[in-house]
Automatic annotation (TrEMBL):
<dbReference type="InterPro" id="IPR006311">
    <property type="entry name" value="TAT_signal"/>
</dbReference>
<feature type="region of interest" description="Disordered">
    <location>
        <begin position="730"/>
        <end position="753"/>
    </location>
</feature>
<feature type="compositionally biased region" description="Low complexity">
    <location>
        <begin position="681"/>
        <end position="690"/>
    </location>
</feature>
<protein>
    <submittedName>
        <fullName>Uncharacterized protein</fullName>
    </submittedName>
</protein>
<feature type="region of interest" description="Disordered">
    <location>
        <begin position="576"/>
        <end position="714"/>
    </location>
</feature>
<feature type="compositionally biased region" description="Acidic residues">
    <location>
        <begin position="595"/>
        <end position="609"/>
    </location>
</feature>
<feature type="compositionally biased region" description="Gly residues">
    <location>
        <begin position="660"/>
        <end position="672"/>
    </location>
</feature>
<feature type="compositionally biased region" description="Basic and acidic residues">
    <location>
        <begin position="1"/>
        <end position="19"/>
    </location>
</feature>
<feature type="compositionally biased region" description="Acidic residues">
    <location>
        <begin position="649"/>
        <end position="659"/>
    </location>
</feature>
<feature type="compositionally biased region" description="Basic and acidic residues">
    <location>
        <begin position="691"/>
        <end position="708"/>
    </location>
</feature>
<feature type="region of interest" description="Disordered">
    <location>
        <begin position="1"/>
        <end position="29"/>
    </location>
</feature>
Length: 753
């Protein structure tokens, strides 16, 4: 799903069965306008989405050859890499008067020749050069072809990567490196003012071939931020509003070199693993990314993988006519490649291959899946950036700097430092939800940094965006309007939400305050809300854990579903079209409780079909309500849940009290000793239950005055609970004391009373 293959040419999906375009083609310049921050107008293809850069002409062949030899990069590959830079011409054929490189022929032929020779066949890097008119600025482009791309979020036949070297012809100094990244939504890896005496180095991502830069003293390591006297390998500057939320420079980088796990998925074609296809006799399971790094599908695991091998350098590719001692010292094997002008490929009309499949799960009330994010490749020399490489400068600070130096580069505010004003980006940090030690066992969560990268899909632009730097997701150029955002991760239940991108907002934070916690499939319980049999139209749902706080908040259209951790205890909030609020207690596994097999109106029903990731049945809220009756019922539920837990502690301490308390709270429990204080707390909770149930009755009877009076009593009882809790803390287990305080906050807060 790399930038080059994802957005090549007209983005046709051309298969043997005659598959055509899934939709209208999007011009490459329009796409790259969105990358740089031009906003929804650029995505829509409106006029003015291109920067007004000067025209370009080809470089003199002799001068181009010299520059290409000077800047030819050394490429470092993972030890598990199966597809190295090669020449596609041996796999070309004539079809209907056109020269075509067929995906089956290239994929199978590459492995056949690799197996026969015992070494990568035809190691080749192609180059092209353009000069901006009336300017000393020129660009040497290095184009790198691989026969296949295997990535978790996307895979396809053929793969084109590019390194652009912007060079000043007057001084001979390089100005900017731009290396291919993932998708048009994630900025490229770029470096301004590289050392002119150092050979450019590319760290190639396993399987997908996304290109990270290496410019410092560590040849095969990537650093997003400089430290220990070493330069950072990128100079991308984050747009302020995004940096405040995510705290890092925006560039894809190299996740497996930044400590993150990245599982790979087996591609399928016509419902079978690609290596089983009869037209690929030379391709076996061993031809793909090593099985130690591979999962059959994202949902094949019950929890995120923790034993995936880290990145390890195996092979380095260097230009045949230049020594590179660093490569020899760093890599196990050094392969010499040929430099060939890309003009020698321009007779090829198409790189073809049918769409491969892999589904993203969407946790709607009825399970759904999306496979349209899988893409194929195009012809590089038909892409606008082939003639105007500045279109691939995706960091606004870099375009602005080039514009300051060279009149040929337009200082377009939608592409430069002013891009924040026009940016339509959706951003989030994906985390993991786990149980917290601060809560009673199975009664509360915390969120931690994820150790496994995941993938984000926005329904309006069906290409999956990989997270990077430990869970950072950035989808750039998202059009104004309503969207569904879905996150998938290996061994994790899918997350899906609806969000709105507003024209006046440069950045839309997905999730809750920009955080999306995922849940391991083995711990996931589905919560469903369906207003089909309700008197209200639900427009929004939110879920708040007692300890982790709000973990889900989404617009809905009548029904909704999401996965929560079975080890949490939650408040589920619903809002209707009039912005009235209702609330339900959802505790997947309350201590001492059996199955609550009722009709689901209280949000704690276990009837229904199995949910998928979790083995338990979904928790359903079938007839959601808003208003005082719902809120009072919620307070009664959460107070009774807490009362039962406190009463159990009192019983364990040998108390004779039956825990029923009384409607007026009984004695105040202010006697000396922790045991008396615990009894007092239990009675205060019982009184709150009684008053809340009375308030719910008044509300259902339509007695507005009586409802208000009873709700006032409820608030008074909550205040008493807070007083009793302060006195009883010494006699309660710390987790239960913490939970009681959190639940009081839940009952009082979020506009529920």
């Amino acid at each position: 799903m790399d930038r080059d293959s994802e957005n090549g040419g007209d983005e046709r999906l051309t298969g043997r069965d005659g598959d055509g375009e899934p939709g209208g083609p999007v011009d490459r310049r329009t796409v790259l306008g969105a990358v740089a921050g031009a906003g929804s107008a650029a995505v829509a293809g409106c006029a003015g989405s291109e920067p007004d850069d000067a025209s370009t002409t080809g470089l003199d062949p002799e001068r181009l050859e010299g520059l290409a030899a000077r800047f030819a990069p050394t490429l470092y590959f993972d030890a598990a890499e199966p597809w190295f830079p090669t020449d596609p011409r041996p796999y070309a054929s004539e079809e209907d008067g056109e020269t075509v490189v067929d995906g089956f022929a290239a994929f199978d032929g590459y492995h056949e020749r690799y197996d026969e020779a015992g070494e990568p066949p035809d190691p080749t890097v192609f180059y092209n050069g353009m000069r901006y008119e009336d300017s000393p600025l020129a660009v040497v482009q290095f184009w790198i072809y691989s026969a296949f791309d295997q990535f978790t979020a996307n895979f396809h036949w053929h793969d084109w990567e590019a390194l652009h070297v912007f060079v000043d012809l007057d001084t001979g100094d390089p100005q900017l490196y731009v290396a291919s990244s993932h998708s048009r939504s994630v900025p490229n890896n770029e470096f301004l003012d590289p050392d002119p005496d150092r050979v450019p180095r590319i760290l190639t991502e396993l399987g997908s071939h996304s290109s990270a830069l290496s410019v410092n003293e560590v040849p095969d390591g990537f650093r997003r931020v400089g430290e220990g006297g070493l330069l950072a390998d990128i100079t991308n500057a984050a747009i302020d509003t995004v940096e405040d939320l995510l705290g890092i420079p925006l560039a894809y980088g190299l996740p497996r070199d930044e400590g993150a796990r990245l599982p790979f998925v087996v591609p399928e074609y016509e419902g079978e693993p690609i290596y089983d296809h009869p037209d690929l006799p030379s391709v076996t399971a061993d031809s793909l990314v090593d099985g130690a790094l591979t999962v059959r599908s994202l949902d094949a695991l019950s929890s995120p993988p923790t034993d995936l091998p880290a990145r390890e350098t195996g092979v380095a590719f260097r230009h045949r006519e230049r020594d590179d001692p660093e490569a020899a010292e760093t890599a196990e094997t050094v392969v010499e490649y040929d430099l060939v002008p890309s003009a020698e490929l321009e007779h090829i009309d198409e790189f073809a291959g049918p769409q491969l499949s892999f589904e993203f799960a969407v946790p709607q009330a009825v399970e759904d899946a999306v496979a349209g994010h899988i893409t194929t490749t195009g012809v590089p020399w038909e892409q606008p950036r082939y003639e105007n490489p500045a279109l691939d400068v995706s960091a606004g600070n870099h375009r602005s700097e080039l514009a300051d130096r060279y009149d040929a580069i337009a200082d377009d505010p939608s592409f430069g430092d002013g891009a924040a004003g026009a940016l339509d980006a959706v951003v989030a940090r994906v985390t993991e939800a786990t149980e917290t030690d601060d809560a009673p066992d199975g009664e509360g969560l915390t969120t931690t940094e994820t150790s496994v990268e995941s993938f984000v899909l926005i329904e309006s632009d069906p290409e999956a965006v990989p997270t990077f730097a430990g869970g950072v997701a950035v989808a750039n150029g998202v059009p104004e309007g309503d969207h569904r955002l879905t996150v998938n991760g290996a061994g994790q239940a899918p997350h899906s939400e609806r969000l709105t991108v507003a024209a006046e907002e440069s950045v839309t934070a997905a999730g809750v305050d920009g955080e999306i916690p995922l849940v391991a499939r083995e711990s996931a319980r589905k919560v469903e809300v369906d207003d089909a049999e309700s008197d209200v139209d639900v427009t929004r749902t939110a879920i708040e854990d007692d300890f982790a706080g709000r973990i889900y908040d989404s617009a809905v259209d009548g029904s909704d579903a999401t996965y929560v951790h079975a080890g949490g205890a939650y408040t589920t909030e619903v809002r209707d079209a009039d912005d009235e609020v209702g609330a339900y207690r959802v505790n997947p596994d309350p201590p001492g409780a059996g199955s609550d097999d009722d009709d689901g109106d209280d949000g704690d029903s276990d009837d229904g079909d199995a949910a998928g990731p979790g083995e338990a049945d979904p928790i359903r809220i079938d007839r959601p309500e808003t208003g005082a009756a719902s809120l009072a019922g919620y307070v009664a539920d959460v107070a009774e849940e807490t009362r039962a837990a406190v009463a159990e502690v009192a019983d364990d301490d040998g108390d004779d009290d039956d825990g029923s308390g009384g409607s007026d709270g009984g004695t105040d429990g202010s006697g000396s000793g922790p045991s008396n204080a615990v009894n007092g707390l239990e009675r205060a909770l019982a009184a709150a239950v009684d008053q809340a149930e009375r308030a719910e009755e008044r509300a259902r009877e339509g007695d507005a005055e009586g409802t208000d009076r009873q709700l006032s009593n409820v608030l008074d009882r909550i205040a008493r609970i807070e007083d009793r809790l302060a006195a009883a803390r010494e006699g309660l287990p710390p987790g239960l004391a913490n939970a009681t305080g959190k639940r009081v906050e839940q009952a009082r807060g979020a506009g529920k009373l």
